[in-house]
Amino acid sequence: MRLLHTSDWHLGRSFHRVALLDAQAAFLDHLVATVREHAVDAVLVAGDVYDRAVPPLAAVELFDTALHRLADAGVPTVMISGNHDSARRLGVAAGLIERAGIHLRTDPAGAGTPVVLADAHGDVALYGLPYLEPALVREQFGAEKAGHEAVLSAAMDRVRADLATRPEGTRSVVLAHAFVAGGEASDSERDITVGGVDSVPAGVFDGVDYVALGHLHGSQTLTPRIRYSGSPLAYSFSETDHRKTMWLIDLGADGTVAAAERVDCPVPRPLARIRGRLDDLLADPGLARHEESWVEATLTDPVRPAEPMARLAERFPHTLNLVFDPERTEGDPLVSYARRLQGRDDRQIAEDFVAHVRGGTGPDGAERAVLYGAFDDVRVDAAEREVSGR
């Protein structure tokens, strides 16, 4: 069975205030063309269809058009909600839409109920696990802990239990939206950390033949059977070196991945990160290749130059982001402060602050629990707002 694995469309998102709707429409044209050209048997969309819980009307219209085109192509599509989506909104009329071959999996309760397709070698059960916010689904899944690993493990237990009831030789595919250990993140994914646990081990997905992941924006192969498709477009300059693709997966008769091919997505405009003193950037002939790119420029001038954006735009008219990182001496206090923060997460920085204001004494166990609880409360509140669309 030939599967086309994609994710993280983020319909409605812009890139540093540049609208991307036309580029997203071009991607969806490309997706439908790929389905037809490569005789795809099923399309897998692993979450973050929209960029926010209440998407703009133009994004909804684009999504509606895409659904119609996929249905007209006669190719089943399985789609899950991600952490950017409002699961309830995305799943509206899912039962009716399913009659057209578009299977929206947005309700965690359906984790163990697959979409069953068949080819010449028998059945393939496709299980859609929507993004699972631990604080909201822990009780529903009977998970012992409120963490991503606990709730995903519980959901996968339901998958394996259902799979055990199916005829021998039934192949299995899981769609999930999660940060799996070993994956490489970029700046444009919304953090899905709760309780300080930001990733789940790949072993959570043991027992199935292929895992189509969403959330991380770079295309990645964690194992031959566990892959991220990545986003079809770049959504931050941290993705400058990404090759934006979809996975074309051939699932063999025995469930192994017989072939995996990356299908390139259209690039609206290349990205470039340039760094140096302003005068040097304007004069360097080696940067000519970036003159038509979307540019992020980091200026290292010791003193901020006059009208830097206007001057950069004369040579690089598509400069979108300007960063100042002045050259400093080793003795500069700002250098040592930046080094102290490097590689530290929010909780560690907060603990360091407590130690700083108390003369070197950091928080004890009880205080640390209160501190971490405050971070988690903010996370849960944000997740509930996302679900409700507030």
TrEMBL record:
Q: Which InterPro entries match?
A: Calcineurin-like_PHP, DNA_Repair-Maintenance_Comp, Metallo-depent_PP-like, Mre11_N, SbcD, SbcD_C
Entry annotated with the keyword Nuclease: yes
Which keywords, in A-to-Z order, does the entry hold? DNA recombination, DNA replication, Endonuclease, Exonuclease, Hydrolase, Nuclease
Q: Which GO terms describe its molecular function?
A: 3'-5' exonuclease activity; endonuclease activity
The Nuclease SbcCD subunit D C-terminal domain covers 268-356
Domain Calcineurin-like phosphoesterase spans what residues? Answer: 1-218
Q: Does the keyword Hydrolase apply?
A: yes
Top-level lineage group: Bacteria
Task: List GO BP terms, alphabetically.
Answer: DNA recombination; DNA replication
Q: Name one matching Pfam family.
A: Metallophos
What the record says about family reads: Belongs to the SbcD family.
What the protein does? SbcCD cleaves DNA hairpin structures. These structures can inhibit DNA replication and are intermediates in certain DNA recombination reactions. The complex acts as a 3'->5' double strand exonuclease that can open hairpins. It also has a 5' single-strand endonuclease activity.
The protein's assembly and partners: Heterodimer of SbcC and SbcD.
| Database matches in NCBIfam families | sbcd
- Entry protein name: Nuclease SbcCD subunit D
Organism name = Streptomyces showdoensis
Q: What is the lineage of its organism?
A: Bacteria, Bacillati, Actinomycetota, Actinomycetes, Kitasatosporales
Q: Which gene encodes it?
A: sbcD
